[in-house]
From TrEMBL:
Belongs to the isocitrate and isopropylmalate dehydrogenases family. The keyword Signal does not apply. This is Isopropylmalate dehydrogenase-like domain-containing protein. Performs an essential role in the oxidative function of the citric acid cycle. Its main location: mitochondrion. It holds the Pfam family Iso_dh. It comes from Musa balbisiana (Banana). It is found in: Mitochondrion. SUPFAM superfamilies: Isocitrate/Isopropylmalate dehydrogenase-like. Transmembrane segments: none annotated. One of its GO terms (molecular function) is metal ion binding.
């Protein structure tokens, strides 16, 4: 059964409509702002979002998002469902909620290793046809990293490839695992990558592949990317073999802009890029299809944390907070997204409140309180 958090409808409608006192500090600041988004009538109505807290640190970081959303009176309210990685399937009522609401925010789901247990993350992506995974890896001011000027968007095909799950034991001791690549899925992920680049003023799209070895499978992926690239002459297109890509990422990551990849390569590349730019705890991401979107921590490595972090309540909420800013833009609430993103970046830049993975000792709640204090 879903649990709805307090909607604070009075504040939601008031903030969404931009009703503030001109004598308040916030009112004086907003009086100087230019109009950047012209809504249609009714666009300010609060939107329902399906919330899956998940496993491990999931409830901590999703709880952090809920607190910040309430503090900024964002026009969303949550329908919460308990889903855990050891379940055999995603409950039908959860799928129905996402179909109805169109948008979901989720914490990490623990995926059992081996044993033939299917990943609920993959079930969710296939059921809702969330064919594009997007992870944004970038430097944050105040967070020292080995490389500067990193700003990479990894767009990964999300439904096939090595993740097709078609495995069987031919004879005892011999397992056959099938990698499936289709022209349909390759073309639509390439089109999504070029559309993203075009709409976000990105200059280059790089296709990552291993067509020198998998000539038919990755060759089909490359052929599809090349065909789509012809329709976007204003965007530079190039290709790179996945092993060379990993070497170039760790030596000169600033050369990459938008990267489009088959399923497995995208997972590896996104986590590598995240580690280069500051760690998986600060990289936002989401999965999107034609009708639905699920937002979560961008890089999957360590997304459920460990028991010690959960016990000490020191999980890093930054990645999911930035993912929720992406969600707000997806819902066409750009002003709220900007306020949230700016507050998070101010806290990181100031450096007083950071969790252990960022070199500090703060708890999740201390970071949340700091972000709330920085909201305009």
């Amino acid at each position: 059964m879903a649990r709805r958090t307090p909607s604070l409808l009075r504040h939601l409608f008031r903030d969404a409509a931009g009703i503030v006192s001109p004598r308040s500090p916030r009112g004086r600041a907003e009086a100087r702002r230019f109009v950047t988004y012209m809504p249609r009538p009714g666009d300010g109505a609060p939107r329902p979002v399906t919330l899956i807290p998940g496993d491990g640190i999931g409830p901590l970081v999703t709880g952090a998002v809920q607190q910040v959303m309430e503090a900024m009176h964002a026009p969303v309210y949550f329908e919460t469902y308990e889903v855990h990685g050891d379940m055999t399937t995603v409950p039908a009522e959860v799928i129905e909620s996402i179909r109805r609401n169109k948008v979901c925010l989720k914490g990490g789901l623990r995926t059992p290793v081996g044993g033939g247990v299917s990943s609920l993350n993959m079930q969710l992506r296939r059921e809702l046809d969330l064919y594009a995974s997007l992870v944004h890896c970038f430097n944050l001011q105040g967070l020292p990293t080995r490389h500067e000027k990193v700003d990479i968007v990894v767009i990964r095909e999300n439904t096939e490839g090595e993740y097709s799950g078609l495995e069987h034991e031919v004879v005892p001791g011999v397992v056959e695992s099938l990698k499936v690549i289709t022209k349909f899925c390759s073309e639509r992920i390439a089109k999504y990558a070029f559309e993203y680049a075009y709409l976000n003023n990105r200059k280059t799209v790089t296709a990552v592949h291993k067509a020198n070895i998998m000539k038919l499978a990755d060759g089909l992926f490359l052929e599809s990317c090349r065909e789509v690239a012809k329709k976007y002459p204003g965007i530079k297109y190039n290709e790179i073999i996945v092993d060379n890509c990993c070497m170039q990422l760790v030596s000169k990551p600033e050369q990459f802009d938008v990267m489009v990849t088959p399923n497995l390569y995208g997972n590896l590349v996104a986590n590598t890029a995240a580690g280069i730019a500051g760690g998986t705890g600060v990289m936002p991401g989401g999965n999107v299809g034609q009708d639905h979107a699920v937002f979560e921590q961008g890089a999957s490595a360590g997304n459920v944390g460990n028991e010690k972090i959960v016990e000490q309540k020191k999980a890093n909420p930054v990645a999911l907070l930035l993912s929720s800013a992406m969600m707000l833009r997806h819902l066409q609430f750009p002003s709220f997204a900007d306020r949230l993103e700016t507050a998070v970046k101010r806290v990181i830049a100031e450096g007083r409140y950071r969790t252990k993975d960022l070199g500090g000792s703060s708890t999740t709640q201390e970071v949340v309180d700091a972000v709330i204090a920085k909201l305009d």
